[in-house]
Amino acid sequence: MRRRDFIAAFSSAALVWPPATRAQQSGDAHYFHALEDIKRGYGKISHPSEAARADYIARLVRLREQAARLKTETWQTIDAEIKQHPAPADSDSKALSNRLVGKWRSPRHDYLYRADGTWTMLPVEPDITHGTWRIAGNQYFDTAASDPPQTRRYTVILIGRRDFVFTDREVVFYETRLK
After folding, report:
1. Would you state the CATH architecture of domain 93-177?
2. E strand or H helix at 178
């Protein structure tokens, strides 16, 4: 390709990019402002209850779902905010464990968490990935049945009727309850 052809091709591409970029920035601005509104509302509560914190996280999760679906960059800012509000360290382990029992969907797989502290990737088939789990305070421990077994520790942010949100301090993980 000659230099002139390259410049012409580049100029044509540049005419297409700005509107897409503006739309991306516009979407980001919308979600950023929505995030700020949600944060401001939560910040007005002088001593938020656990119910208020759980509601705040659930609202952030819904906003994050929308931002990620539209491929805006704001989801990263939302994740950073969510990480700052883990479940209390002295959370009722039994209550959280009871809430976790059931079927959940992550972006990659579906899982079944059983009351006996075992989990299985769905659908249940021979040799499917499985292991054990437990909750202590706001810490979620997941052990994969591998050789050698690998246990990972996460901090619970929310286990609600709809959402299971936890973090390894770097990444926030999201699972949604299946009916």
Report:
1. Beta Barrel (2.40)
2. none
Single-letter amino acid, residue 67: A
Residue 114: what pLDDT?
98
- Amino acid identity of residue 5, one-letter, is D
The residues near 166 (Cβ < 8 Å, ≥ 6 apart) are 140, 154, 155, 156, 157, 172, 173
Neighbours of 86 (CB within 10 A): 21
pLDDT exceeds 50 at position 44: yes
Looking at the chain, which residues constitute the CATH 2.40.128.370 domain(s)?
Answer: 93-177
Spatial contact of 167 and 83, defined as CB atoms under 8 Å apart: yes
- Cβ atoms of 111 and 121 within 8 Å: the answer is yes
* Ordered alpha helix ranges (H), 44-167: 50-69, 74-83, 93-100
Structure tokens at 40: 């401001």
pLDDT band with cut points at 50, 70 and 90 for residue 4: very low
Q: Which residue reads 């516009």 in tokens?
A: 26
Q: In the structure encoding, which two tokens stand for residue 21, read together?
A: 């970029």
Backbone angles phi, psi at 93, to 5 degrees: -55, -40
Q: What is the mean pLDDT of residues 114-125?
A: 96
